[in-house]
Amino acid sequence: xxxxxxxxxxxxxxxxxxxxxxxxxxxxxxxxxxxxxxxxxxxxxxxxxxxxxxxxxxxxxxxxxxxxxxxxxxxxxxxxxxxxxxxxxxxxxxxxxxxxxxxxxxxxxxxxxxxxxxxxxxxxxxxxxxxxxxxxxxxxxxxxxxxxxxxxxxxxxxxxxxxxxxxxxxxxxxxxxxxxxxxxxxxxxxxxxxxxxxxxxxxxxxxxxxxxxxxxxxxxxxxxxxxxxxxxxxxxxxxxxxxxxxxxxxxxxxxxxxxxxxxxxxxxxxxxxxxxxxxxxxxxxxxxxxxxxxxxxxxxxxxxxxxxxxxxxxxxxxxxxxxxxxxxxxxxxxxxxxxxxxxxxxxxxxxxxxxxxxxxxxx
Length: 363
Fold this sequence. Notes:
Blueprint: H1 7-18, E1 28-38, E2 47-54, E3 57-63, E4 70-71, H2 74-82, H3 85-111, E5 119-129, E6 135-143, E7 146-152, E8 157-159, H4 163-173, H5 178-200, H6 202-205, E9 212-219, E10 226-235, E11 241-246, E12 249-250, E13 255-257, E14 261-262, E15 268-276, E16 284-289, E17 297-300, H7 308-329
Antiparallel strand pairs: 1-2, 1-5, 2-3, 3-4, 5-6, 6-7, 7-8, 9-10, 10-15, 11-12, 11-16, 13-15, 14-15, 16-17
């Protein structure tokens, strides 16, 4: 029953399945992605990777090779100097989760009656502080590119999509205090650490980078229509308002758009296109609003070139951007180490590091 797809494809599939909705302009989030891949061609032990994000900016990293949690942002390097035990404590937690993931992979492979081969286990946990002051939290757990369990913190229960997952649901729902602790973690402890990390990285996370906006155009040989593509690149923060306007009003007919996606330097890119009658070209504008702009931009549409090479370049850039967005989005789905005493004061942004909790985390 093992899937034949590549690890990257599986990560992309789960990324799509678990993708959260966009936040408001003043919203902030902290989320952790864990992935364990068992690939016999690469050795007998699973490869484990952990990545932490604040507002989509990578700030911590751990993998099976380094076996140490390491900073990936300047403000985290300072935190490590001020509090060296922070890294030791979280490294201990992650090593425990790496070991736990190996046991879980074996259990799930047996439960799904799978042979040896390529298998993936993933989980994601995080919280968000929205612009209106409300709080959100999420914890999802996945296997083989499909959702395995999702935590419903309002009903204090785990949601299981298939019989194999229901076995784990019954175990975890039956642990006294277990689900209430994780509701508290998502709504209180995680939010507290989000505010701390955002404060530490304020200079980076509160910066603004002005979008570079360009419009490319082409004529359709078949029917004489025109396609115009408005691209925004290098902007930060993530939130951007871009639309096509006709005579000053938002125009949705014959329009398409991509998703706001990250660049390697922590900024973002986005695109939208429109197909119009060339006789009405002067009526349309690409309208862009962003915190990095002193005032909104309204770009006129250019007379298109009939060069096929330009057409190929435009399409190639869009495809490359989409592939990059999917690749970066991939790594995910969720779970954490807990403690026997659920009311103890938190010593880490990951929740409890008490190893005794491991026995109640059996899948």
